């Protein structure tokens, strides 16, 4: 497996979504579902949804993926980015109903030291492994900000106030973190 | 799509765009930001960067098994496709997410004053704290002089309007502090559609306050 395995996985998912868009391909949709639905469920559960609720919302997200496939443009976004935006929009609905979830200090995605379980590694594949590597390499304060922004539903302003750092610093650290993760996954030639 | 929108002069604060990207805004304010993004390639690029991070995080989530019949249920819902709700042709020129919100609201434009009509979009979220209204101002017509209880953020969708603080064209975001009293008037030529979001006292004052502080050097948002 070469260094481009992560990119290949990403392209495979994007290819499936293109088949759904262009041909209403149900088999391709099934494969997209098997990859993304359990991850979207995981994301929504982490935001504070109960297991049945996260399941239902993940189903809604996948129905929307089918219904809105016509608007997917592979030149603008990879499948995972596009599906994230759909899940994110459901999350916006969720924020209204839930109290803000507590951050899990032991969240494996944000644990630099934790060894991922063998299962997780087997499922995750090369792209995720690289993302986790990149996440580990981030300075602690950048990792923490990503976690608060994406998984605790907190505004940058709240984060800035609570951590006593200027809003501008929150923004610049977050952008740095985005860029590092992006270059870890896409930037290599 | 990616038509050149060089004229946008007033953008939302970066923090607002990034909070939208991460999903941290309430639905009505999120609609205003997403409609701005549809018109503004500059802010869209910033948002996209954050959304890519979101995509990576989704990829990296440890999967949680779906219920056994989940795929079957989803396929059943896909086969029984819902009828699309038709909305008046005058809205054709508006960004798709705004048209979707109009369709979902089931509301119609109601005349307010001469040349000014409004459509209530608060139904998109029963428990939302802010108020969201779509205005249609005929060329040359003016919204009566008014103030706000909270901060107001207004996105111009078509045409242009001017008030004491300046002129705002399609894609521009005008921010008014609670203290502002103004009388927006549509410029001649084109019908002005605008989305106005007013926050409840306290609810988003921090975030909108930040926008105001950023805009203040340009003489906006007093």
Overall description:
The complex is a heterodimer of chains A (189) and B (222). Chain A has helices at 5-23, 26-46, 51-67, 79-97, 118-137, 140-151, 156-163, 167-185. With 189 residues, chain A is mainly α. Chain A folds into 2 domains: 1-101, Rna Polymerase Sigma Factor, Chain: A, CATH 1.10.1740.10; 103-189, Winged helix-like DNA-binding domain superfamily/Winged helix DNA-binding domain (Arc Repressor Mutant, subunit A). The radius of gyration of chain A is 17 Å and the shape is globular. Chain B has a single domain, classed as Jelly Rolls (Sandwich). Helix content of chain B is 33%, strand content 22%. Chain B has helices at residues 14-22, 27-39, 41-60, 70-79, 96-105, 205-215, and strands at residues 110-113, 116-120, 131-137, 146-147, 152-158, 160-163, 166-169, 173-176, 181-182, 185-186, 192-198. In chain B, the strands form 3 sheets. A 6-stranded antiparallel beta sheet of chain B has the order 1-2-3-11-5-8. A 3-stranded antiparallel beta sheet of chain B has the order 7-6-10, with no helix packed on it. In chain B, strands 4-9 form a two-stranded antiparallel ribbon. The two termini of chain B are 33 Å apart. In chain B, 43% of the residues are buried. At the A-B interface, helix 2, helix 3, helix 4, helix 5 and helix 6 of A face helix 1, helix 3, helix 4 and helix 6 of B.
Key terms for this structure?
heterodimer; A: about 190 residues; Rna Polymerase Sigma Factor, Chain: A; Arc Repressor Mutant, subunit A; 2 domains; 8 helices; globular; disordered N terminus; B: alpha+beta; six-stranded antiparallel β-sheet; three-stranded antiparallel β-sheet; disordered C terminus
